[in-house]
Structures are given as structure tokens and as C-alpha cells.
């Protein structure tokens, strides 16, 4: 594709994303496509799921009156044919085609050339984009390629509108949609009903919604403060770089010039005075200026467009910060955002957070893991949930099924409230299990430990009957600092955990940063972070960090009965095992020489990379224990990013390949007479517990929240039954079949209380 075409595509997509409504977006598409392709007519038909018909939704070139009034059945006309075949149709004489539909109000007989392409999102045809020409000629291959490319890029906009109820609204503009459901994936189980609070971190100017200012004076003040901050930043940067040649510094001076040139800032102020909120006013003015520069097509001026955008982005960053600090958190906050982050959770006053909805991320994002630890229901990857228009509205978060209900009706609210009561009752019943042993009906003990990361987790874990810590994510205390914590600071945190759990065993994982876990003060920028500098790879390259951590762990263990188990993340080769063990021994020697009376810690390896599965036996020979990190193991075995909602349905911990790997690791550890645990999320699910018991895992480590339910399951099954279930599951082809089968078996054995409601047989 030529540069000009790419440029056209980029601009159209940008304008469509910046449109203030779905209707405006459609109008932008048809007018921009018509001019980019120099064609006489461009129209869009959008599938209305309610009626099953394609609505004539936007048009440029003729018959504007038919928009919103005409709709075409899926088996009618050429538009229906494009949808049916899910392929482009290119004709030089459309009216002579047998499927041509004669609709007098459309006046299409005069147009001979026809090119229609489907708009497809996630395998579903959502609409049809059509261009027409009066003359009898075929659109050429370039036209076809252009329209297909554009349609693929616009499909997400249409899908978003469909989910937000905007498509029905095209026909009935005032319809108030009740009980609109959005689907994501379960991030943390449970149900919450509460008030939506939208967080907009680091999003781009394009997606700032237009909305009315609640308090014009306050918005003006925020704008001034934000601009003041940006000015200070620029001045500081300019001073810091004073030794650089002038050309390198002009950028900052250019920014300062733009800020001092009152025209730009004045324009933003004007819009606020007319009632727009500061972020919306900023977006409008900056995008208008950017576009004006971009259209000049002079390379120097195009660069100015990038400068204006960058400046606007910086002001936006501060506006958001200021606003977020001022936020009044409702008592029943449902936090919703494009990408909800751990830092956002920390901003909310204790006890006010009821639920989380994140457009991005998946069940294994660290925010989801944190939500489970906090026992806050969460839905991740809800890509279609709109962020505009929901603020302050009631939302229902169904963390069991990964569903969000916006604008819920009274009956739906009562339904969910009843489910919440049921859950509460079961939880109360489970409290009685606290002091009972975790053993199967035929007497097999299975240790239930916890995954932990925040000091606040300790009490809850012990209250829920944790028998040890199976995974202490040490990176969490590192994340809350603004520099590496000192050895003594680390020792104090680790000691707190060990003392609280003494004499129970405590497994401390060495720093596992990289991937999606970043330290603000130690940025790692990589193209492909999950395959990059992560976990043990970082700490072996920085032995000073590794040593201070291990020394702190060993010191924290002094004088306690608790067995210290040091665990290494992301191991993918034997040399890493050898090098790390050498450092652990050295740390122990040093600490002993300093006069501490400490035992040699146990050392273990996390099996979370396929290479480690195949070398599990050799690794087990060298270390004291193995622990499977099934979250990463699933991601790496299936080549499915654990945070990417686009592929979330493919992320399956009970995939037959993953189950085989789990079985191999357990066998390898036992062959070397070493203990083996599992600390990924699978261990905390009823189905996972059954499978892991069957495979002989000695330790299941999970978020404390899941522990009572898992103990209940273990006390209701026998190893024999579990093995029978596993044997059959391993003969099955895919994860869905396996999950359905295990759940059916659980129902057969009277464990239906832990089986999701939709999997229960109808009564
Ligand atoms: C895992 O990968 O399964 C694991 C327990 O570690 P984390 O989720 O912290 O990567
Ligand atoms: Mg991991």
C-alpha cells in the first residue's frame, strides 16, 4: 500500500475515533471514504441484532432521507449477499445481478458499479460498507484492498457501538436501554452492586469524552494548574539540557512558546466557559489544531502537529491526576476503566471498593490477582463496556461469569441481591471448616497454603485456615516504593510475615519483575516483555539485588521455627539453578558470619516455562522442591498472553497439554523424592483442586479467598475418584469438554454448590 493510502487510512480511523457519537462516526466514515476513493456514493448498513436486519445507517451521495428508515433482510439484496458470504462483492453492473433489490426510495438503479465489503468483528458480520459509481466499471484491486483494510479497522468501533446499545438507538434515538450486558472474563469471583466511578489513566486525547462541566470555575482552575505543571516540567527539562546544542532544546522552547501564546490556552478556556469540562475542551482544541497542521502536508508543519499533540497529552496527564485526587469515592464504588491498575486500587479509601471492571487485562493480570486477594469481584477484558455515560450509574459486576450489567432494572437487581445472599450463607457455612484438616475422604492430606503480597493479607489468611505461605510475591512491597528497598527494610517486611506464620512454612519468591510487573524506578522497556528480561534473568544479572533480598530473607528467619523456602521464578535453564543456588549458599554463609543463628533455607524452583517442564527431573535433583506457576506455564505453553483480552478465550489452564505438563512435573518431583506444589490460580479452583489431588500435588497454594471452598471440595472427594476423573479428562480433546466433564462429575458426587449455576442441570 502506498504512503498516501496509508495516510488516508490513518486519518479516517483517527477521525472516526474522535467522533462525538456513533452516528457522527458513521457519517465521518461515509464522507471520508467517498472522498478518499473519489466515488459517487458510499453507504453503511449495520446489523440490528434485535430485528436481524441490516439498517441503512449512513450515506453520502444520494437519498439522505432513507437513512434510518430502510432496512434489508440478511437474505435480501446485494448487501445481504455480502453479509451471507462474509466476502467482498465487486460488480460492474449491479442492477443486472439476480440479487439486486429494487427499492424505489433508494434510487440505486442509476448506479452500476458496486463494491460491498463486510464489516467483521471476531468472526461475526456486523455490517456492510458499500461504494457505488454511476458508470459501468469494476472497482480495481486497490479499491478493494483499501475498503477491506478500512472495514477491518472500523469493525471494533461498530462492535463497541453494538455493545453499548447505540445500534438500536440509531432506529429509536431516545430508547433508554435497561439491563445492557457486557461480557468479559472473570477476574475475581463474587457479585457486586454499586456506583460506577470511571478512571481514565494514560488514555489518549482521542478517547476523552465530551461532557458538560459540573463546575466551570473548578474546571478553569484545574486547567490553569495543569498548564502550570507542564510549564514547570518544560522549564526544568530545558534547564537540565542546557549543555546541549540549541537545536536539541528548541522543542522545549517551542512547547513553552505554545503555552505562553495565549491563543491556544484561551481557546480551551473559551470552551470551558461555554460549559465543556476541561479535558473535553482540551481534546477539542488540540485535535482541531493538530488536524489543521496535518492537513498542510508540509513536513515541517506536520512536525508541529506532533508537538501540539504531545503538549496536549501532557496537559491531559496532569488534568487527570488533579481530578483523580479530588475524586469523591462513593461508599459502594465500582471502579471502571480502560486499564485498571494496582495503583488505582491503592487510591480508594478502605472499605469503599465493591467491584472492578477493566476493559483491558484478563483473569491473570496482576490487578485481577490483587482483586482476588482483596476479595473484590472483578470483570476483566470487558472491551465493549463504554466508559462514557456510566459514571455515577448503578452497575452490577458478576465476577463469577465475567459479566457487567449496566442500567439494571429492579428485577435484575433483586435477582443479583439474592445470589449475593446465597454466597454469603455458603461462606458462613465454610467458616466452620477452619480448624478441620484438609484431607480427602480416603485420608490423603493436601496442604493448603496461601499466595500473599500485602501485609494486610496475613490476618485474613490465618483466619481462613492457611497452613503456610506457598508464594510470597516479594515484588509487591518493591512496587509500593520509589527506590529499591534496603536490606533492612526488606528484612522487616519478611519478618512480619514469618513471625505471623511461625511455625508454618513460608515460601518467599525472589523478585519477579519484568513482563507486566514494572517498578517505576527501574523501568524495563522491551518489544516483547513476557519473553524478555524477567524474573531470575533480571536478578542474576543484578546479583546485588538478589543478594540483598536473599540475605534479608535469611535474617528474617532467625530464631523462628518456620521453615524458610526460597523460590526462583522464570527458570529456563540449569545454569540459572546452579548460579542462584550458589548465591543462596553464599548469602547464608555471610549472614552466619555476621553472627546470626540461622538455618540453611530450602531452595525451590518455579516450573512456569515449558523448558523447565522437560527438565523437571534434573531440576528436582538439584533443589529441595518444585512449584508450578500455572499462570505463566499456561501462557507459555499455549502461546497466549495472559493479559490480552483478544485471546482470553484461548487461555485455558485445563487445556489437555497443560494438564499433561502438570502431571509430568509432579511425577518428576516425586521420582526425586522432592515435594511439589502448585501456586497458579488453577490451584484455587474446585476443578483444579480435583485434578491436582489426582496428580499427587502435595501443596496447593492460592489466594486466601479460595481456601475455604477448596478445603470443602477436598473433604468431599476421594483420591480414587479424582484419579478416575483425571484419567478420563486426559483422554479428552479440549478444555471445554474437560471442564464440563469435571463439573458433571462434581454434580454427580453432590458437589453442586461449587459448580457454576449455568452448568447445573435444569430442575
Ligand atoms: C504463576 O505464574 O503461576 C505464578 C504463580 O506467578 P505470577 O502469577 O506471580 O506470575
Ligand atoms: Mg509466574
Radius of gyration: 30 Å
Shape: globular
Give the number of helices: 27
Helix content: 40-55%
Strand order in the largest sheet: 7-14-13-9-10-11-12-8
Strand content: 15-25%
Major β-sheet annotation: 8 strands, mixed
Total DSSP E strands: 22
Which structural category do the helix and sheet elements fall into? alpha/beta
- Oligomer designation: single chain
**N- and C-termini, Cα separation:** 59 Å
Which segments are poorly predicted (pLDDT under 50) over 5 or more consecutive residues? 172-176
Mean pLDDT: 87
What are the distinct ligands in this entry?
phosphoenolpyruvate, magnesium ion
Give the tags.
alpha/beta; 27 helices; globular; binds phosphoenolpyruvate; 763 residues; binds magnesium ion
Amino acid at each position: 500500500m502506498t504512503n498516501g493510502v496509508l495516510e488516508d487510512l490513518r486519518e479516517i480511523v483517527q477521525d472516526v475515533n474522535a467522533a462525538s457519537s456513533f452516528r457522527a462516526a458513521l457519517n465521518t466514515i461515509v464522507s471520508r471514504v467517498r472522498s478518499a476513493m473519489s466515488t459517487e456514493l458510499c453507504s453503511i448498513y449495520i446489523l440490528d441484532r434485535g430485528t436481524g436486519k441490516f439498517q441503512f445507517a449512513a450515506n453520502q451521495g444520494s437519498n439522505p432521507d432513507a437513512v434510518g428508515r430502510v432496512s434489508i433482510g440478511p437474505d435480501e439484496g446485494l448487501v445481504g449477499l455480502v453479509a451471507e458470504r462474509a466476502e467482498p462483492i465487486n460488480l460492474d453492473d449491479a442492477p443486472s445481478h439476480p440479487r439486486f433489490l429494487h427499492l424505489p426510495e433508494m434510487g440505486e438503479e442509476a448506479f452500476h458499479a458496486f463494491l460491498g465489503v463486510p464489516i467483521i468483528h471476531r468472526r461475526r458480520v456486523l455490517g456492510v460498507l458499500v461504494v457505488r459509481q454511476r458508470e459501468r466499471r469494476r472497482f480495481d484491486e486497490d479499491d478493494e484492498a483499501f475498503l477491506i483494510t478500512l472495514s477491518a479497522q472500523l469493525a471494533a468501533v461498530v462492535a463497541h457501538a453494538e455493545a453499548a446499545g447505540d445500534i438500536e438507538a440509531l432506529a429509536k434515538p431516545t430508547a433508554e436501554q435497561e439491563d445492557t450486558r457486557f461480557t468479559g472474563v472473570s477476574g475475581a469471583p463474587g457479585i457486586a452492586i454499586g456506583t460506577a466511578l470511571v478512571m481514565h489513566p494514560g488514555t489518549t486525547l482521542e478517547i476523552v469524552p465530551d461532557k458538560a462541566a459540573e463546575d466551570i470555575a473548578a474546571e478553569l482552575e484545574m486547567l490553569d494548574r495543569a498548564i502550570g505543571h507542564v510549564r514547570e516540567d518544560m522549564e526544568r527539562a530545558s534547564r537540565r539540557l542546557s549543555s546541549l546544542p540549541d537545536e536539541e532544546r528548541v522543542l522545549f522552547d517551542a512547547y513553552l512558546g505554545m503555552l505562553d501564546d495565549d491563543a491556544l490556552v484561551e481557546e480551551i478556556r473559551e470552551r470551558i466557559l461555554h460549559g465543556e469540562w476541561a479535558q473535553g475542551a482540551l481534546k477539542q482544541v488540540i485535535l482541531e489544531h493538530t488536524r489543521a497542521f496535518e492537513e498542510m502536508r508540509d513536513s515541517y508543519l506536520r512536525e508541529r502537529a506532533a508537538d501540539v499533540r504531545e503538549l496536549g497529552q501532557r496537559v491531559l496527564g496532569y488534568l487527570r491526576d488533579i481530578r483523580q485526587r479530588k475524586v469523591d469515592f462513593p461508599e459502594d464504588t465500582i471502579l471502571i476503566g480502560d486499564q485498571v491498575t494496582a495503583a488505582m486500587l491503592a487510591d480508594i479509601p478502605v472499605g469503599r471498593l465493591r467491584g472492578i471492571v477493566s476493559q483491558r487485562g484478563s483473569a491473570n493480570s496482576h490487578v485481577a490477582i490483587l482483586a482476588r486477594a482483596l476479595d473484590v469481584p472483578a470483570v476483566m477484558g470487558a472491551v465493549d463496556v463504554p466508559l462514557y455515560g456510566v459514571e455515577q450509574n448503578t452497575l452490577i459486576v458478576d465476577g463469577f461469569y465475567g459479566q457487567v450489567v449496566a442500567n439494571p432494572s429492579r428485577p435484575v437487581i433483586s435477582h443479583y441481591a439474592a445470589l449475593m445472599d446465597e454466597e454469603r450463607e455458603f461462606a458462613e457455612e465454610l467458616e466452620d471448616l477452619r480448624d478441620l484438616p484438609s484431607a480427602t475422604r480416603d485420608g490423603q492430606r493436601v496442604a493448603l497454603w496461601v499466595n500473599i503480597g500485602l501485609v494486610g493479607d496475613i490476618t485474613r489468611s490465618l483466619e481462613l485456615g492457611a497452613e503456610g505461605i506457598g508464594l510470597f510475591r516479594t515484588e509487591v512491597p518493591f512496587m509500593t516504593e520509589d527506590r529499591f528497598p534496603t536490606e533492612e527494610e526488606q528484612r522487616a517486611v519478611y519478618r512480619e510475615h514469618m513471625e505471623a506464620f511461625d511455625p508454618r512454612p513460608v515460601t518467599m519468591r525472589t523478585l519477579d519483575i519484568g513482563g507486566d510487573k514494572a517498578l517505576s524506578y527501574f523501568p524495563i522497556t522491551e518489544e516483547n516483555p513476557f519473553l524478555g528480561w524477567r524474573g531470575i534473568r533480571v536478578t542474576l544479572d543484578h546479583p546485588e539485588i538478589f543478594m540483598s533480598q536473599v540475605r534479608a530473607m535469611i535474617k528474617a528467619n532467625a530464631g523462628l521455627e518456620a521453615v524458610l523456602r526460597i523460590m526462583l521464578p522464570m527458570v529456563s535453564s540449569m545454569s540459572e539453578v546452579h548460579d542462584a543456588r550458589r548465591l543462596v549458599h553464599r548469602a547464608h554463609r555471610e549472614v552466619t558470619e555476621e553472627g546470626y543463628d540461622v538455618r540453611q533455607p530450602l531452595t525451590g524452583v518455579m516450573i512456569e516455562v515449558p523448558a523447565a517442564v522437560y527438565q523437571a527431573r534434573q531440576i528436582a535433583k538439584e533443589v529441595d522442591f518444585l512449584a508450578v506457576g500455572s499462570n505463566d506455564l499456561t501462557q507459555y505453553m499455549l502461546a497466549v498472553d495472559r493479559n490480552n483480552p483478544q485471546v482470553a478465550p484461548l487461555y485455558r489452564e485445563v487445556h489437555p497439554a497443560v494438564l499433561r505438563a502438570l502431571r509430568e512435573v509432579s511425577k518428576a518431583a516425586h521420582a526425586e523424592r522432592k515435594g511439589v506444589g502448585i501456586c497458579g490460580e488453577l490451584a484455587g479452583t474446585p476443578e483444579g483442586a480435583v485434578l491436582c489431588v489426582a496428580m499427587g500435588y502435595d501443596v496447593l497454594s492460592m489466594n486466601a479467598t479460595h481456601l475455604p471452598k477448596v478445603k470443602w471440595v477436598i473433604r468431599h472427594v476421594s483420591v480414587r475418584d479424582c484419579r478416575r476423573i483425571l484419567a478420563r479428562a486426559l483422554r479428552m480433546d479440549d478444555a471445554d469438554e474437560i471442564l464440563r466433564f469435571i463439573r458433571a462429575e462434581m454434580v454427580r458426587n453432590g458437589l453442586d454448590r461449587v459448580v457454576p449455576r449455568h452448568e447445573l442441570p435444569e430442575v
